């Protein structure tokens, strides 16, 4: 990872999990990081260590005014935005028949429209400089599906299509748009799946690995070779992989 203290990175959902550890790793490398989240309690120690390079912006990505105001704070402080990591996430676990449609709307407001709002807000500044990178954090379940999280899976499938489309549109401006694919990680959003934590990746490891690739403009970015191989297989056999993951989860639930 290039140490460049002029690079400004916005990370949404940066107070916990993968986003928090990405922010920490990037600060260690000299990047300037704007952490967008509803809460900033976990960022307090980082703020003490990096008072000039960390900016916490209390932001609800479902609210247009808050998104615009937070992005403007970043511009006022550092004058530029080089990289956006769209990482905000909401996963509500429930079978289709037991889930209120309003819950699904909430998932789309955070996981899809939250990404769109952030992109809309940073795009003028990236276009003005004719450069920038937008990373949209996705998930394998957007390719394979997964029982009990149809809303979350649908949002991630939509993110795959959004990223492809914007990568074509924004290329003329010198802006790259990618999908970041973490493995199944022990985060709050993954906890309802019922998968034992010991078989999931550590968010600290995943966050640090993805931080090392924050300057990458490849269409698909993964933290390691194993995740890349899994995605290769999942894209070719989505139905088989989805069924297998669902059965494995049910088996683990019965054991527990």
TrEMBL record:
This is Short-chain dehydrogenase/reductase SDR. One of its GO terms (molecular function) is oxidoreductase activity. InterPro entries: NAD(P)-bd_dom_sf, Sc_DH/Rdtase_CS, SDR_fam, SDR_oxidoreductase. It comes from Kosmotoga olearia (strain ATCC BAA-1733 / DSM 21960 / TBF 19.5.1). Keywords: Oxidoreductase. Belongs to the short-chain dehydrogenases/reductases (SDR) family.
């Amino acid at each position: 990872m290039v140490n460049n203290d002029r690079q400004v990175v916005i990370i949404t959902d940066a107070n916990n999990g993968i986003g928090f550890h990405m922010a920490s790793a990037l600060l260690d490398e000299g990047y300037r990081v704007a952490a967008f989240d509803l809460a900033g309690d976990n960022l307090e120690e980082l703020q003490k260590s990096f008072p000039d390079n960390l900016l916490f912006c209390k932001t609800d990505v479902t609210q247009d005014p808050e998104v615009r105001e937070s992005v403007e704070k970043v511009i006022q402080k550092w004058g530029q935005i080089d990289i956006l990591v769209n990482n905000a996430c909401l996963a509500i676990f429930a079978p289709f028949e037991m889930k209120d449609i309003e819950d699904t709307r909430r998932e789309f407001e955070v996981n899809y429209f939250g990404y769109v709002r952030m992109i809309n807000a940073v795009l003028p500044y990236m276009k003005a400089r004719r450069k920038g990178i937008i990373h949209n954090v996705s998930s394998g379940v957007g390719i394979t599906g997964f029982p009990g999280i149809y809303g979350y899976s649908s949002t991630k499938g939509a993110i795959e299509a959004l990223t492809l489309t914007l990568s074509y549109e924004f290329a003329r401006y010198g802006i790259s748009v990618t999908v970041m694919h973490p493995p199944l990680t022990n985060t709050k959003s993954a906890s309802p799946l019922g998968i034992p934590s010991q078989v999931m990746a550590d968010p600290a490891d995943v966050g640090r690995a993805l931080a090392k690739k924050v300057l990458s403009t490849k269409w698909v970015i993964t933290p390691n070779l194993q995740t890349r191989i899994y995605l290769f297989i999942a894209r070719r056999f989505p139905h088989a992989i989805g069924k297998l993951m669902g059965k494995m989860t049910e088996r683990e639930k019965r054991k527990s």
